[in-house]
Amino acid sequence: MGKAFDWIYSRFGIKESHKGLLKRTIPGNVNYSYCLGGMAFIFYCTLLISGMLLSSYYIPSEKEAFQSVVRIMRVANLGLLIRAIHKWTANLLMLSILLHTLRVFANKAYRPPRELNWIAGAFTLVLSFASGFTGYLLPWDQKAYWATVVGTNMIATIPLIGNSLLLLVRGGPEVTGFTLVRFYSLHVIWFPLLMNLLLWAHFHMIRKQGISGGL
Asked: pTM of this prediction?
């Protein structure tokens, strides 16, 4: 255990103070592809703001969810625009994180001492897709419902724990109002909290280790 903690400390450096916030050494071969991570962070902040605005009108109820989305689009001031921004920004976020991950892998920036940062980034990618999946159900229309049924059925194929995990995710054997509330809770509370923690760790390690120079 001692060696494991020493390894984490050497990669994370939590006790060391940060130097000047804007003082950073930039490798000479940095290009525009290195901006993908920053773009993803901007998209994430946009999702947080637009999501908070949408939550003021959305009702996570089996009877009211769809009608609340209709009210957002037809009655609320700028509701249609804000929902469109939230939807398309979510797509851009996942695309930018995926491209950022591929860029990091191609440049071999996962090598020591950046292994822990690579792990944090990989979890961020997975969490982004999970957040997008939980958000897909929230309109509670036929398309969202059956997509969730198909998506969650895949969980049951996991050996040994598949059925138990399916019940945990759905809140029961079928996709119902319990599933909607559970997905809403994950989408607006738990996943953003975990994402914020991962992003803080990710940026902290980038600040400590500097930008990778690539191959």
From this structure: 0.85
